[in-house]
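Subject: Sanity check before I submit

Could someone independently write out the structure tokens for this chain? I want to compare against mine line by line before I put it in a report. The sequence has 206 residues.
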Amino acid sequence: MNSQIHITYSARVRMIVVLLLVVVALFAPLSAPVDAQSPVAPILLVVNDGGSSPFGRYLGEILRAEGLNSFDVVNLSALTAGDLSAHTLTVLAETTLTAPQATLFTNHVNGGGRLLAMRPDAQIAGLFGLGSAAGTQTDGYLQILTAATWDSQQPGSGLSGSTLQIHGTTSRYSLAGGVMLAQLFSNATTATSYPAVAGAASGRAA
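---
Independent answer below. Compare away.
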């Protein structure tokens, strides 16, 4: 399975946990035992310790809690194309990117790599099937679309379809070929047209 996924908001940690559960459903095969002869873990977590978001390394704790124990961690400043190609899936924590860094991720996905990004930089928004930016939203709600089909799967199946409150700043984008996996709400009952979680139609990024 090739997969790309994008999470548009910067929320408190418990909301990151909820949305990452959607992602874990997509990449369940990665929790299988890793070949003992392989020195490289299947998942690469890319963090920016000098960035504005304090939650980058906490994603590693979420992965462990979901049984995905085999992963490597690299700081964005030290990331190379070789690091990306050596892993089955890259998880990018929320961070801004320089132009060369954006090119690095773009080339990786266009070359067949799989990328999951938390509130990705606008320079790589197109990788996730996102179109025009429409500003930001402070706080609000999201709803997991439990019947949404992406890459021949329904990642939200079995999860709650109730709206969930989020706190923080959310980036709002139109869809441009992507699949909405969770929808952004302005309040508990009023849906917007913007995705909270989106997956690229290619199935390689989300």
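---
OP: Matches mine. For the report I'm noting this point. The two ends are 13 Å apart (CA to CA).
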